Recover the amino acids of this structure.
């Protein structure tokens, strides 16, 4: 199988962190040449399964420099390669230059309008509402006067959610959202995002623990047919309720497939899709959190569970389609050890988890997002200052949460 693929087109992975690593590992092990275009400190730079392409940004933004390279003469040796998006910036780049890129590279199946809609969180919620998919309460407001008129309707805590998360992260040091506990905090947060030129809307915070979060993955063909069904759930996030997942587990989650497909088909999405929900204990409904139309950070968990998503997509695009697995291994766990220790510290300070409970919880075989015995350098050579900062923070005390909330369930998974 490896020999047959050695003469196949190269893959060019654009952006991403753990997901970019998962892509090059999944393809590289199958004998496919991989090239990575990314930020200068991306862990994928050090993987033995890819060739790094250094692209200085100069005085411009990285994605603009990436586009100039991909469409310029320097990248002629990559002509005919498969271009794969592993970040929101990459999706925007490919959509904005799709016609020119399609003349030079093989692009994944896509409905650009739907991809941009799923990138825009407000548009995603509006499509869900049309499709009859439950969402938290949300309000689209632009002016202070509108917010003051809504004051009696608002429920706190509230998430100040950016339309485009990746642009918010650039302006606010990696933070993807803000939580407001009071009306005054809300006004302050909206003023800050407005000054930064970031469009936002307001979303009700669904109560309950992070173990109420679950995800659905699939690939939609040109007819909207789902080619596989995969579900997982979150065990912990950090910071609690507002951060990224630091501990995941594969599991069958009833009801999430049907709601996800209603949303995706209403949007007209094609290609890779990932939809996240949270169970609202108040009414027993799964409610939409967000949707990603690309490879995600948990793709290494999919691969370990039996679904090599990057190879599945690559083979379809190069004329060698094959059926995806019809089932996946349950109970597989993806663990960010340092960040999860910080999550434990936060829960411990709130009296919600003891060290013994946390230790019993993690005494399982684990998949790590960056470390692999056969490809160790991405974890060893990650920017040392960033790793050292994480370790110091973990042992000096968990970062203060953006808010505190009563939670009715702490996972015993």
């Amino acid at each position: 199988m490896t020999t047959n693929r050695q003469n196949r087109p190269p893959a060019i992975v654009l952006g991403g962190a753990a997901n970019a690593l998962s892509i090059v590992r999944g393809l590289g092990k199958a004998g496919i040449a991989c090239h990575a275009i990314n930020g200068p400190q991306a862990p994928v730079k050090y993987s033995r399964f890819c060739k790094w392409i250094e692209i200085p940004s100069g005085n411009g933004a990285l994605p603009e420099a990436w586009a100039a390279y991909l469409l310029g003469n320097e990248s002629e040796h990559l002509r005919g390669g498969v271009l794969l998006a592993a970040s929101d910036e990459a999706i925007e780049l490919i959509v904005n230059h799709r016609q020119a890129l399609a003349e030079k590279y093989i692009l994944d199946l896509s409905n650009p309008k739907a991809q941009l809609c799923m990138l825009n969180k407000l548009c995603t919620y509006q499509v869900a509402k049309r499709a009859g998919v439950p969402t938290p309460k949300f309000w689209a407001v632009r002016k202070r006067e509108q917010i003051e008129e809504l004051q009696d309707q608002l429920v706190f805590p509230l998430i100040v959610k950016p339309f485009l998360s990746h642009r918010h992260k650039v302006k606010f040091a990696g933070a993807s959202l803000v939580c407001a506990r009071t009306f005054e905090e809300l006004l302050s947060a909206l003023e800050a995002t407005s000054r930064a030129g970031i469009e936002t809307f307001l979303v009700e915070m669904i109560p309950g623990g992070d173990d109420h979060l679950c995800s659905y993955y699939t690939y939609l063909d040109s007819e909207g047919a789902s080619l596989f069904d995969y579900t997982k759930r979150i065990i912990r996030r950090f910071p609690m309720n507002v951060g990224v997942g630091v501990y995941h587990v594969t599991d069958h989650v009833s009801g999430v497939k049907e709601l996800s497909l209603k949303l995706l088909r209403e949007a007209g999405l094609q290609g890779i899709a990932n939809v996240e929900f949270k169970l609202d204990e108040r009414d027993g409904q799964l409610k939409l959190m967000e949707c990603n139309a690309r490879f995600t950070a948990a793709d290494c968990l999919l691969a370990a569970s039996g679904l090599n998503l990057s190879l599945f997509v690559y083979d379809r695009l190069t004329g060698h389609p094959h059926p995806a697995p019809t089932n996946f291994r349950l109970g597989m766990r993806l663990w960010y050890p340092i960040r999860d220790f910080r999550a434990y510290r936060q829960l411990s300070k709130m009296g919600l988890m003891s060290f013994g409970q946390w230790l019993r919880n993690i005494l399982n075989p684990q998949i790590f997002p960056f470390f692999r015995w056969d490809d160790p350098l991405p974890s060893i050579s990650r920017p040392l200052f960033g790793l050292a900062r994480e370790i110091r923070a973990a042992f000096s005390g968990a970062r203060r949460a953006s808010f505190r909330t009563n939670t009715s369930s702490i996972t015993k998974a």
Confidence is low (pLDDT under 50) at residues 398-413. The first helix runs from residue 2 to 5. The CA atoms of residues 162 and 199 lie 6 Å apart.
